[in-house]
Design goal:
With 404 residues, the chain is of the alpha+beta class. It has helices spanning 2-12, 14-45, 69-81, 128-132, 164-170, 237-251, 265-272, 274-308, 310-318, 323-360, 369-393, 397-403; strands at residues 56-62, 88-91, 102-107, 115-124, 136-139, 159-163, 180-183, 186-194, 213-217, 227-231, 256-257. Helix 2 (14-45) crosses helix 11 (369-393), helix 8 packs parallel to helix 11 and helix 9 packs antiparallel against helix 12 (397-403). The longest helix is centred in the C-terminal third of the chain and has 38 residues, at 323-360. The protein is elongated and about 100 Å long.
């Protein structure tokens, strides 16, 4: 019975109903996509890099002659190993959340007709696997004689370690050990599978997985120099890094210590996600502002309708309607309006997501975010209409009729 009265009343106020429904639908569309973006950012910030971050720091130097790379690496590794507390030192091409690294498109056949996508390559010396703290889950580690120098971008036809996710992408359902892929004329042969190793610039996207990486054993030489990964006890890394910077400046005083890149891994991760934290704050502010505006719109409209219907409310009270009946009337009316807004908002949310996918390569909006947005708006609507509804239910029949 209440619904019939509510629908009749809404038909009399089509414009106001349409405007508040439109406001709720826009709130629903933005809320679903903003919540999705927030969860994506949070997931990205918790990406497992696969390395022992609290125990690691990077030292980077520049300004040297490539012909002296081998000698430079030997001097730097020896000097850094002399720092108190250092457990391991390795020459590496890059670290997660750092700069540089090697990205290349690969093919899964020697004729290079079947593309495997673009992946990240980490080059590391014989101590790098232990220094990184990589976890081998199948196959074997490279032997000493399998660490060879670069020819161009990579060593010649190197054996590699591949992450389990990349192995599953390249050869789903097959044993990756012994499989090969190619980058131009270089053939990469899988000898082992590691659990995790994130890309240098990890992110959650529709196009690639942050674990699509390989480790290439490489020996010291030109093109593979200047970046040194240090491992020590987590609690000592701040002191170890300061000592490492000091010893570096003494060991190679004529070269440049890159202070922006020479940091603890935890600091590199924190700086890498600085923009994500700012974006999270902006998205949360947007959601709070949007929900607040929507709530104020509902409250304003409900108050307006209460004042307009005082006489009607008084007559209903005089005919026996209880306070609960009046309260439920406004709650049902709000529920219907919000539901209409949510249904329209889900269409807007889908269209908005398609636009974001085209512009920013975001993944498709999962359907689970739709009911979450709907529940939030239903609760918000009921809370927003509660005060006006209670005010309406407290109107006495005599007061309403006298004021009419």
């Amino acid at each position: 019975m209440q619904i019939r009265y509510v629908l009749a009343a809404l038909r009399k106020h089509r414009l106001a109903t349409f405007l508040i429904t439109l406001q709720i639908s826009l709130a629903c569309a933005v809320l679903c996509n903003a919540y999705f973006l927030i969860m994506q950012r949070i997931e990205s910030m918790h990406i497992d890099s696969g390395i022992a971050e609290p125990s690691l720091a990077l030292v980077k130097i520049t300004g040297y002659d490539q012909q002296q790379a081998q000698d430079l690496n030997a001097r730097m590794v020896a000097a850094l190993r002399g720092v108190a507390g250092v457990q391991n030192v390795s020459v590496v091409s890059a670290v997660p959340f750092g700069n540089g690294g090697v990205r290349a498109g690969v093919h899964l056949d020697p004729q290079q007709k079947q593309s495997g996508g673009v992946i990240d390559f980490y080059l590391g010396d014989a101590a790098a696997i232990q220094t990184f703290g990589l976890r081998l889950i199948a196959g074997r580690l490279p032997s000493r004689d399998e660490y060879t120098p670069l020819t161009q971008l990579f060593p010649a036809n190197p054996p590699i370690l591949i992450t389990k996710k990349l192995a599953a992408k390249f050869w789903p359902g097959k044993d990756p050990l012994g499989q090969q892929f190619w980058v131009t004329n270089t053939a990469f042969r899988v000898i082992g599978v590691i659990d995790h190793l994130s890309t240098v610039y990890p992110s959650i996207s529709a196009e690639e997985d942050p674990d699509w990486t390989v480790f290439v054993p490489t020996s010291s030489g030109a093109g593979f120099d200047g970046k040194y990964l240090i491992r020590g006890n987590p609690g000592d890394m701040a002191r170890i890094l300061n000592d490492a910077k000091t010893i570096t400046q003494k060991t190679v005083p004529n070269l440049i210590l890159d202070l922006e890149a020479s940091k603890r891994m935890e600091d590199l991760r924190s700086e890498f996600f600085e923009n994500s934290r700012i974006m999270l704050g902006l998205l949360l502010s947007l959601i709070v502002g949007l929900l607040g505006t929507t709530a104020l719109g509902i409250i304003g409209l409900a108050n307006f309708w209460v004042s307009q219907r005082s006489k009607h409310i008084g007559i209903r009270r005089a005919l026996g309607a209880t306070k609960g009946d009046i309260l439920r009337y406004f709650q049902i009316e709000n529920f219907i309006i919000v539901t209409l807004g949510i249904l329209l908002g889900m269409l807007f949310a889908y269209e908005l997501n398609l636009g974001l996918m085209r512009l920013y390569e975001l993944p498709k909006l999962p359907l689970i975010y739709m009911p979450v947005g709907a529940i939030v708006l239903w609760i918000l609507g009921q809370l927003a209409v509660l005060a006006p509804a209670l005010s309406a239910s407290s109107i006495s029949p005599m007061t309403a009729i006298k004021s009419a």
